[in-house]
Specification:
Blueprint (H helix, E strand, L loop, with lengths): L2 E5 L2 E2 L6 E8 L7 E7 L6 E6 L7 E2 L7 E6 L4 E6 L8 E9 L3 E2 L3 E4 L3
């Protein structure tokens, strides 16, 4: 059974940093493409970042502007999202996901950046 368990969310002041983690189990992590999305209540989920398997290049949402870094450790197996210079409008639930060859979602971790 596929499981994705996120952690690392919390309350951070504007301009601060957080590192999210997502521990995976129940599938062959090394062959899966992974990603992070975020969602604010009442809005659609928004792509934050994706990272392919086997050393491929990550992709980021346009709003990231060099502030976030997605990475993975296939030995752990875990995917990370380092977020720097966070803004209040980035308050959301952040979800870990497998993007290929099949899609699965974690339960999410809340990130709050007060204005």
């Amino acid at each position: 059974q596929v499981q994705l368990v996120e952690s690392g969310g919390g309350l951070v002041q504007p301009g601060g940093s957080l590192k999210l983690s997502c521990v995976a189990s129940g599938f062959t992590f090394s062959i899966y493409h992974m990603g992070w999305y975020r969602q604010v209540p009442g809005k659609e989920r928004e792509l934050v970042a994706t990272i392919p398997s086997y050393g491929g290049e990550p992709t980021y949402g346009d709003f990231v502007e060099g502030r976030f870094t997605i990475s993975r450790d296939d030995d752990k197996p875990t995917v990370y999202l380092q977020m720097n210079n966070l803004k209040p409008e980035e308050t959301a639930m952040y979800y870990c996901t497998t993007t290929w060859p099949s899609i699965h979602w974690g339960q999410g971790t809340q990130v709050t950046v007060p204005s």
